[in-house]
Specification:
Length: 183
Amino acid sequence: MELYISACSKAADVAATKTATSGLTTESQQCGDGEHKTQFSGVGAAQLLDLPLGVKLPVIPGSNSLYYTTKLNEKLFRPSYGFNLTDPYCRLLENQYKSLHDPHLRAYHKRKDILRRLKKGGYITSNNKVVCTLRELNKYRQYLTSLKLDFERNYIREQLEYFSKAFSTFMQEALWMEQQNCE
């Protein structure tokens, strides 16, 4: 495990230095005659909460944002309501193993030395949330959106079944009452 953590911490350090140096070189990069316009004008950290679930979060130039998904040892993907055919190629559900989301490793990750190493390496936040990239967060938000739509679709289907059943019993009772009045 220490080999895994040390290898991942090296990759995290490289990524951190890459993002730190990329902020310095963005001003000198120009292509063509004019300046580049940002794709999302007026989108800041405060406006990100107003974006709907189906929209991908944009990269804000010059920001040093930290993204996280769930708590440590909390499952990232949950089973859907029923059999779902909307994602036949499993693009939303990643089948890659992530040890920080494994609930069976809770006792191991609760150890103070491991917890301290994970926080020092930047794998979890100070309140034990698993750190992720913007791409992973956007994919997770897309997955949550599909779960929400699936739940709403099934809720509407159940409501329609309930009301159609209630209406049919009401019509049967009304027909029975009408037959009783005719006799």
